[in-house]
């Protein structure tokens, strides 16, 4: 593949803003090269999401193998999301500072190596530490994906379609995760769920290197990273998670110390942020019209999704006596819409803008969450549960791709990486709190699973109303932002 040429101009270097030819991305890359690079970017995000869901159906086998409790399972699950959610706050800044292509490739390489080591973990706490490493690697790679897509597709309409493909490819991780995880657990136990990441990481790097990969190169930026404030944010989120897990386990003294630590870490974070020349939460991004609604919506959606992903395998395998693979299949009413519906969402967003799909997704998710909670309280009624899963699947697949497009349109110029990091941090923080809170409820009473799921789904149903009202009242979006083009 060669850069675009005309009879009147010479080829432009990859970083040149004038290098975009007709039907080509930055650097004049041909459509085939862009598709290959887009596939690699999407595959990397697929792998990160796969690691979030693939472990869910392995929970009972993991508990038996390592002799751990529900609290231990929560840490094995949330060790990844705590690191990912907290470090995503600076993941975007790292992407802007050192170049999105570098952050993405180094993150994917460490993720592959960390997955291999996780498969060899001899005990629970070694696995938790390695899950933290995986979360840190994912935090470097995830914000860079949106920056790379923006570089490949500078035209807003083409970018909306590319984001839809990215969301569909990554959304298929939700469909593949429980099924792949169930198959691997039935075949070789929980350790196999980490080995699948090794070839995926290698393929991702192959697709984003070479000639197409040169299109993704971006110059280093001037933005600094405040690591002291970032560490305070990690401590605050980790201690908050520990507080919720301790409450569920009945360790009230432990919970008291964790609560005090959470308040102290949050206070330190606020103090450092006020004095920082490079704040973790960029004020220009936070003040952008529509950003509060975007962040709150992302947190609520992922709270509901991850709470369900954590609790439902335990309920299905323990109450309904399903095998791990059958448990993964039981998720299909929710996960299949996440695989194909983002393509439809991309077309809708390109025509009417992102906010209507966001509203529709919030409504479906609120309805589905309530139905799932009612189904679990009614006594493990799978037909009713499936109805709720379908609503949630379409709710997630309408809202998240539209949120990403709205983010690109809303973020100030030059802050795509930071804005992407903020949105993904909000989502992972919501998911972390969801898993911790659900686990706490799951330890209370004989019907803890049903009660936990009901509370976990009713809470995001209420939270979803807040950004929905903001959007309907015109406070959630810039004036006149009816399409993806600003």
UniProtKB/TrEMBL annotation:
Membrane-spanning ranges: 37-58, 73-91, 103-122, 128-150, 162-184, 190-210, 231-249, 293-316, 322-346, 358-378, 384-408, 429-446, 452-472
Location of this chain's protein in the cell: Cell membrane
Disordered: annotated segments: 1-32
Biased composition (Polar residues): 1-10
Pfam families: MFS_1
InterPro entries: MFS, MFS_dom, MFS_trans_sf
Major localization listed first in the record, in broad terms: membrane
Leader sequence segment: none
Gene3D superfamilies from the UniProt entry: MFS general substrate transporter like domains (1.20.1250.20), Multidrug resistance protein D (1.20.1720.10)
Keywords: Antibiotic resistance, Membrane, Transmembrane, Transmembrane helix, Transport
SUPFAM superfamilies, per the entry: MFS general substrate transporter
Topology term for the membrane: Multi-pass membrane protein
Sequence ranges assigned to domain Major facilitator superfamily (MFS) profile in this UniProt record: 37-479
Name of the protein described by the UniProt record: MFS transporter
Source organism: Streptacidiphilus alkalitolerans
């Amino acid at each position: 593949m060669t850069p675009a040429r005309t009879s009147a101009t010479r080829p432009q270097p990859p970083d040149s803003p004038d290098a975009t030819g007709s039907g080509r991305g930055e650097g004049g890359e041909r459509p085939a090269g862009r598709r290959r690079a887009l596939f690699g970017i999407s595959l990397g995000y697929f792998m990160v999401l796969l690691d979030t869901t693939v472990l869910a159906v392995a929970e009972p086998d993991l508990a038996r193998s390592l002799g751990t409790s529900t609290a231990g399972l929560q840490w094995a699950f949330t060790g990844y999301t705590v690191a990912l959610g907290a470090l995503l706050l600076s993941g975007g800044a790292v992407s802007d500072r050192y170049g999105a292509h570098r952050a993405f490739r180094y993150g994917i390489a460490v993720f592959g190596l960390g997955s291999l080591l996780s498969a060899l973990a001899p005990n629970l706490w070694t696995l938790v530490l390695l899950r933290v490493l995986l979360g840190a690697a994912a935090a470097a790679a995830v914000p860079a994906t949106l920056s790379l897509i923006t570089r490949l597709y500078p035209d807003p309409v083409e970018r909306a379609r590319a984001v839809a493909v990215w969301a569909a490819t990554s959304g298929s991780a939700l469909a593949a995760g429980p099924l792949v995880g169930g198959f691997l657990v039935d075949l070789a136990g929980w350790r196999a769920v980490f080995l699948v990441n090794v070839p995926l990481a290698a393929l991702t790097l192959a697709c984003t290197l070479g000639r197409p990969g040169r299109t993704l190169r971006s110059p280093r930026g001037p933005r600094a990273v405040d690591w002291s404030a970032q560490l305070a944010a990690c401590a605050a989120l980790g201690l908050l998670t520990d507080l919720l897990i301790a409450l569920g386990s009945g360790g009230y003294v432990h919970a008291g110390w964790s609560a005090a630590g959470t308040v102290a870490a949050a206070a330190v974070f606020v103090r450092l942020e006020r004095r920082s020349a490079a704040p973790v939460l960029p004020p220009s991004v936070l003040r952008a019209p529509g950003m509060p609604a975007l962040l709150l919506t992302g947190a609520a959606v992922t709270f509901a999704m991850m709470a369900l992903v954590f609790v439902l395998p335990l309920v299905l395998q323990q109450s309904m006596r399903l095998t791990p693979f059958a448990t993964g299949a039981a998720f299909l009413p929710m996960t299949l819409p996440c695989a194909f519906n983002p393509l439809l969402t991309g077309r809708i967003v390109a025509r009417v803008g992102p906010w209507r799909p966001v509203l529709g997704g919030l409504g479906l998710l609120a309805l589905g969450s309530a139905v799932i909670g009612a189904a679990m309280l009614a006594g493990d009624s799978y037909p009713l549960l499936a109805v709720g899963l379908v609503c949630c699947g379409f709710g997630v697949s309408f809202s998240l791709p539209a949120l990403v497009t709205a983010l690109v349109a809303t973020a100030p110029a030059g802050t795509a990486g930071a804005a992407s990091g903020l949105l993904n941090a909000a989502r992972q923080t919501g998911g972390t709190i969801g898993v911790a809170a659900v686990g706490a409820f799951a330890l209370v009473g004989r019907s803890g699973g049903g009660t936990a799921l009901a509370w976990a789904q009713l809470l995001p149903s209420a939270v979803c109303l807040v950004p929905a009202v903001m959007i309907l009242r015109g406070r959630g979006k810039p004036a006149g932002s009816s399409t993806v083009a600003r």
